[in-house]
Amino acid sequence: LPPEARQLLSDFLLEYESQKPAAQVPVARVVLGEASAVSRVVDWTDPLCPHCADLHEAMDELRRITPGGFATEPHLFPLDGLCNSAVERKGPGGEVRCLASKALVCLEAEPDKFALGQKVLFENQAALTPEKVLELLRPFTEKKVLEACIASPDTQKKLDVDIAAGRANGLEGTPLVLFNGKEVKPWPPLIYALALTQGKTKHPAFKMLPPPKNRPGPVR
Question: SS3 of 85, please?
Answer without folding.
Answer: coil
